[in-house]
């Protein structure tokens, strides 16, 4: 045992030198980033550890839980299954980029709150991102279609019933608004916490 | 309208389906999961774990790890052993219980796959993970110990050789004369039930970050835990860091279900490394690591016997339990099965009860509390066996239950196991459930399918459960030899502007305490719900607490908040009387204001009183300038929620697939603070109970490897795997607390597993199937059907040969 004498060395960690670093240009939630990354760096670690976008959590190491789901150029991906270098030249939207420019929540965020579709909330970012992907393709899903579409996202707290309810409620609201993708649109004020839940 | 039992007026807030204050950060990603945290100079820890179930450690060589660029330190168990005590077990269940040493990092021997053997500290997480490959460990394999019965044989290989036995303890609970009951019985039904091991699977894996201040010897431990207060005490004892120098913070915690009700070695390792290196360190576990390193749940073999008369009256029950402790005793490993000991008789009256539990060491991950902890196992045993008894007697399983359950007018009722159930109405909950379920129609359809030899059979499963929760009266915990108490703390601070801070010793991780405690406080103080802020989970903010588990938070912690608020009102009343120049007795308090009886214009709001106390210009003689109040509550009794769950399944006898067709739960959790949160707890609880019945199992091979070792192999149900539930409630207020509330966190899990398996068995019993082990996977169901039909046709053939043709 011992401590490495190198720990007193003030130079930054030499990890990058070991494998040739790659330059990437990624837009994350509307902000452009230029970075050098190890080719093996996972997108989710790039988001969390490099950019501090910790709204996207990690729930597994096998691509099963879906907690890390983000939008990559309009496609829903599990960001633990994508390398940061694969996001080069592309646009990533995370849960932190969903609200409108005025801070108004996305209808899915509102619906998850109103329908009590979260308890601990760890699965919630991924659930919302996966549900958003579903509603882009299928604005009026049946409950079964919602369940099937969310198969890759695990929740241990809710039993999914209220998640399905929330996705259906958000779908209805999006249809009323006539906008499959409300990003950038004022989507109504976020409902304050403490409102009576809709029956 | 006031409640007959409590004399309490229903509040403006208690009973409302308030949406949660917690949600705003969670739905926008503005969270503070432990792994989100960082600190200047943060180092990352990776842990090397044993690939073998049982082996002697011959050598650990970390030198080449140290040569890797970016690595700052690498340590074997022996390197870290100095100053690091054995991990604690707080429950010495019997005087002679065998309590082995449990080092945070193994030194001489590894005893389960995943037992940690070395740690590496590096500047980033990838380098730390890489450097694990540089650590060399030589193992001398020892025989694994996996079979609970074989482990007790005289010549069995030992998990802890120095202890001379794999038997951890045998714990009895005997009441009445079971031998006499059995002798008097017309019918004795005996069954063996297997409670498979489960992996709790909170969605957030664990993480620990330890931040030192070397100059002062202070440490802050951020840990993904349900029990920051208990962790603080235990870490002080284990690491020797003086308690007053140690702050423990549970930031946002992504679920627990018991898995984070633990004092884990990784917390001790993080603190020890922070102490050695003088720098902040963080460890975050991978999911696959967590499957080996977080404690598991269940893991029991239950031999159950029910003795009854021909007309279905229960006389007695006998239970012999073998409980898999795993390799070590963690915080409440030995006591977990005993939390069920009192619940085997369920809601039924009987004369005699004979319970013995033997804890057995194996070379598997330790077991400990998982949602329900002992009570799901007990409820499964009684409810499954009641169905078998009903079948034996040719009685409808509901009728058998009716003949034996405690009637509403018999409460409070002291059971054969010695508990006093305060309140309940089993008939009311059952009637409500039956109405929602359409019991008679489903029975008719079941008969029709049977007569038509439909390959898809229908089965109906019943579970009329109760449970003991709200852990727990300290004196009872003491008599059970648990090391700590079961009280809870609350403090209310009235701020000068009339806003309110509630400090709670509970440590929510999804349960919605911030919202529910706001509702309780708003009612008691008459302040707006929005004006209340609830703080928790940081030993510096909430210095006292016993944390969150065992469905205790509302019935102890929530009531403590209520009582503290009443103390604030009592103080404010004195000040208001002084300011209004009235006698305290002449003041009425309603809607947050004191007014003089008969002259309602003479009035002071509680906010006005709060400011007057802050200014302190004119206070009653001798009064301290504060309205703040604290309350520590030690409950008198447990909480006994109950209910009736009905499940209808369709079982495809050709594929073995079980599909839940409908599921009705009527739960009685007393008065409800927030019906939306209660419904959510029921949904999630039932989902985990269904998961045990149909999907989940921690599978080990003969060498002791965890075969279901990743989330790809262990079947946590996804949305398509679970049904929509029909939920409803009856409301029989608890008499043990002023709000009439009962616990709800575990009820769904406790109730649902037997409902589902009873339904599967009800579908297949006519085919001759006698039992199916959980989880009732398609393969197991298919095999059971195949074996039963083969046996039936063999019997028919034999009868055909013998009989006249
Ligand atoms: S963390 Fe990406 S799927 Fe689990
Ligand atoms: S809300 Fe906790 S995992 Fe989904």
Automatic annotation (TrEMBL), chain A:
InterPro entries: 2Fe-2S-bd, 2Fe-2S-bd_dom_sf, 2Fe-2S_ferredoxin-like_sf, 2Fe-2S_ferredoxin-type, 2Fe2S_fd_BS, Beta-grasp_dom_sf, Diverse_Oxidoreductases
Superkingdom of origin organism: Bacteria
Transmembrane stretches, start-end: none
Gene3D superfamilies on file: 3.10.20.30, [2Fe-2S]-binding domain
Biased composition, class Basic and acidic residues, residue ranges: 175-184
Family annotation (SUPFAM superfamilies): 2Fe-2S ferredoxin-like, CO dehydrogenase ISP C-domain like
Region (Disordered): 175-199
PROSITE patterns reported for this sequence: 2FE2S_FER_1, 2FE2S_FER_2
Keywords of this entry: 2Fe-2S, Iron, Iron-sulfur, Metal-binding, Oxidoreductase
Residues annotated as domain 2Fe-2S ferredoxin-type: 22-98
Keyword Iron-sulfur: yes
GO molecular function terms attached to this record: 2 iron, 2 sulfur cluster binding; metal ion binding; oxidoreductase activity
Protein name: Carbon-monoxide dehydrogenase small subunit
Automatic annotation (TrEMBL), chain B:
Compositionally biased intervals (Basic and acidic residues): 13-22
One term of GO molecular function: oxidoreductase activity
Annotated Aldehyde oxidase/xanthine dehydrogenase a/b hammerhead domain residues: 28-143
Coiled-coil residues: none
Superkingdom of the organism of origin: Bacteria
Protein keywords: Molybdenum, Oxidoreductase
Pfam families: Ald_Xan_dh_C (PF01315), MoCoBD_1 (PF02738), MoCoBD_2 (PF20256)
Region Disordered, residue ranges: 1-22
Protein name as it appears in the record: Carbon-monoxide dehydrogenase large subunit
